[in-house]
């Protein structure tokens, strides 16, 4: 069977990005772990070889086991009985092979049993797992909740819980409630502190991915009489202590192997994670940023699978005595799918690298005081990660859905049947632009980086990079798109009307995203000529989108806004 890492040279290209040397050296603290752990790397080359070997294991398990189980898991799905959720048979096998291979807690420090992976190769593993089984990536990928325990838990909590995650215990983040979806300030699950100082939780959570997990991070209202985010704290619930039952699991369109649960808390013992009142303001924000990067990776994995299924079918299916890929209409669809895939993957890993850099500086700050230069870099990388995360999640998930749609279109009537994987891909893809913050909410998060100039500054940074002579023309073309973008931003922000600015936000964010991804593909093509075709196709696509949005903004009469608003 295929190895989902080695059969995709694009992954190795991104893993070997020039920024990785800085990331690895900071993450490994100049490779001092080698003195304590025999599997720790001795130098940069050793570390990169280690990442490659682990990713090959991930690719082998995904191509040979997890992908083979995907159809059966989709048909069987998860189930609920006697207050518990149960995985499909294939999911149980998937989890077990991942545990045996040591692929749980990958980003956690070695002293807790983890592999001490930077975020970038860990996200690459998530990309690969999602290609194999999108729903399983939810379960496996929730190991990144351990990052919240590591960052905000106390020493005792780290020592007790993180090794369990690294050994294979599953996690969930219990945030949403029946009356608190995206508006988490409305969370009302009650946390009560007893006389002995311990806490119990009472209430209901809904739409909880992997809700019957071993270890839960729970957002609950700890402050009596409050109704906003300042009254919320984060808690750790251990399933072994009892007190939580699964009332039901949702019957979903897709990702059938991932149980989405409604949970009932009845005097469930829990312990405070971090400080009171900081649950939503600080901890959930960090948790959600990690989750959104994970969904961006999931989206890229689905896009990869959709593209491969469409390409294989288009080469195999013959009509009028030739393969349908020889028809320009189909060939164009396949080329655009590949361009969207490559663009979203480039953005995903650019974002992951910035996350790596600011997080490693924050971790170093727990050990020693950062230098002024390090603090400056940490702040800059944090800002870039904050800007690119909603863009990667929002636009990556939209491209994922478009590629799944086009995959079915390439298959024609056969794509509507359950005989082909594209039908499952289409159903699995749909959730990516909804959960962990809809695309519309990603626009809300991203628009401030339009108005404050973060994206424009990033474009200037990319524009300053030299390219090969044969790529100069496309670089010049991207520069004209930047000017159109800046003019559109100026036109929208010059109007003193908040409703108008909110209305135009999506267009500005999409323009910024398209241009940023164009520059990233330009950089990819500059390092590897294999990306040149996708670069040219994608820039054509973005140019048309920028022109369309520019025309709409320039010709829009603010007085007609009432036609669109309730």
Describe what you observe in this structure.
- The protein is α+β, with helices and mostly antiparallel strands and 566 residues long.
- It has three domains: 311 residues, Butyryl-CoA Dehydrogenase, subunit A, domain 3 (Up-down Bundle); 107 residues, Butyryl-CoA Dehydrogenase, subunit A, domain 2 (Beta Barrel), CATH 2.40.110; 124 residues, Acyl-CoA dehydrogenase, C-terminal domain (Four Helix Bundle (Hemerythrin (Met), subunit A)).
- The protein is built from 17 helices and eleven strands.
- The strands form three sheets. Strands 3, 4, 5, 6, 7, 8 and 9 form a seven-stranded mixed sheet that branches. Strands 1-2 form a two-stranded antiparallel sheet.
- Strand 1 and strand 2 form a beta hairpin.
- Helix 10 packs across helix 16, helix 10 crosses helix 17 and helix 11 crosses helix 13.
- It starts with 8 loop residues before the first helix and ends in an 11-residue tail after the last helix.
- The mean pLDDT is 96.
Map the helices and strands:
Blueprint: H1 9-15, H2 20-27, H3 44-76, E1 79-81, E2 84-86, H4 89-100, H5 119-132, H6 134-141, H7 146-152, H8 155-167, E3 171-174, E4 190-193, E5 199-209, E6 215-221, E7 232-238, E8 244-249, E9 260-273, H9 279-316, E10 318-319, E11 322-323, H10 328-365, H11 372-411, H12 421-429, H13 439-451, H14 454-463, H15 472-493, H16 498-527, H17 532-555
Parallel strand pairs: 3-6
Antiparallel strand pairs: 1-2, 4-5, 5-9, 6-7, 7-9, 8-9, 10-11
Helix pairs in contact: 2-10, 3-4, 3-5, 5-6, 5-9, 5-10, 6-9, 9-10, 9-11, 9-12, 10-11, 10-16, 10-17, 11-12, 11-13, 13-16, 14-16, 15-16, 15-17, 16-17
């Amino acid at each position: 069977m295929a190895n989902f890492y080695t059969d995709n040279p694009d992954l190795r290209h991104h893993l070997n990005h020039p920024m990785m040397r800085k990331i690895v050296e900071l993450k490994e603290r100049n490779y001092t772990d080698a003195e304590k752990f025999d599997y720790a790397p001795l130098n940069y080359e050793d570390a990169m070889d280690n990442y490659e070997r682990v990713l090959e294991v991930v690719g082998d398990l995904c191509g040979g086991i997890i992908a083979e189980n995907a159809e059966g898991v989709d048909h069987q799905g998860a189930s609920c009985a006697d207050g518990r959720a149960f995985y499909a048979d294939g999911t149980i096998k998937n989890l077990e092979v991942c545990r045996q291979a040591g692929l749980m807690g990958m980003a956690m420090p070695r002293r807790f049993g983890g592999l001490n992976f930077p975020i970038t190769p860990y996200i690459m593993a998530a990309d690969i797992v999602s290609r194999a089984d999108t729903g399983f990536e939810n379960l496996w990928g929730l190991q990144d909740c351990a990052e919240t325990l590591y960052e905000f838990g106390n020493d005792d909590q780290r020592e007790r819980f993180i090794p369990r995650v690294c050994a294979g215990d599953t996690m969930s983040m219990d945030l949403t409630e029946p009356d608190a979806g995206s508006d988490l300030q409305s969370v009302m699950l009650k946390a009560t502190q007893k006389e002995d100082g311990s806490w119990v939780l009472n209430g209901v959570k809904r739409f909880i991915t992997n809700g019957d997990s071993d270890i839960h991070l729970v957002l609950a209202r700890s402050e009596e009489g409050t109704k906003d985010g300042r009254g919320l704290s984060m808690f750790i619930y251990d399933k072994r202590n009892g007190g939580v039952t699964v009332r039901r699991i949702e019957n979903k369109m897709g990702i059938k192997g991932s149980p989405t649960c409604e949970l009932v808390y009845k005097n469930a013992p829990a312990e405070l994670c971090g400080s009171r009142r900081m649950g939503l303001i600080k901890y959930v924000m960090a948790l959600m940023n990690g989750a959104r990067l994970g969904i961006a990776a999931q989206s890229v994995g689905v896009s990869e699978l959709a593209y491969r299924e469409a390409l294989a079918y288009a080469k195999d299916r013959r009509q009028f005595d030739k393969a349908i890929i020889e028809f320009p209409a189909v060939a164009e669809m396949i080329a655009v799918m590949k361009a969207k895939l490559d663009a979203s993957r480039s953005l995903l890993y650019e974002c992951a690298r910035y996350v790596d850099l600011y997080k490693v500086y924050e971790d170093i700050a727990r050990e020693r005081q950062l230098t002024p230069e390090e603090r400056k870099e940490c702040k800059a990388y944090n800002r870039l990660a904050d800007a690119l995360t909603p863009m990667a999640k929002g636009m990556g998930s939209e491209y994922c859905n478009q590629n799944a749609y086009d995959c079915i279109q390439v298959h024609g009537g056969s794509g509507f049947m359950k005989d082909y994987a594209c039908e499952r891909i289409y159903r699995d893809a749909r959730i990516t632009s909804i959960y962990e913050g809809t695309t519309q909410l990603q626009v809300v998060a991203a628009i401030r980086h339009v108005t404050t100039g973060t994206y424009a500054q990033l474009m200037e940074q990319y524009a300053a990079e030299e390219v090969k002579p044969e790529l100069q023309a496309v670089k010049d073309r991207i520069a004209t798109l930047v000017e159109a973008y800046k003019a559109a931003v100026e036109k929208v922000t010059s109007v003193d009307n908040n409703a108008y600015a909110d209305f135009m936000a999506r267009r500005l964010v999409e323009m910024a995203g398209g241009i940023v991804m164009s520059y990233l593909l330009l950089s990819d093509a500059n390092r590897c000529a294999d990306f040149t075709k996708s670069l040219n196709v994608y820039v054509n696509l973005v140019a048309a989108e920028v022109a369309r949005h520019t025309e709409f903004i320039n010709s829009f009469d603010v007085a007609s806004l009432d036609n669109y608003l309730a």
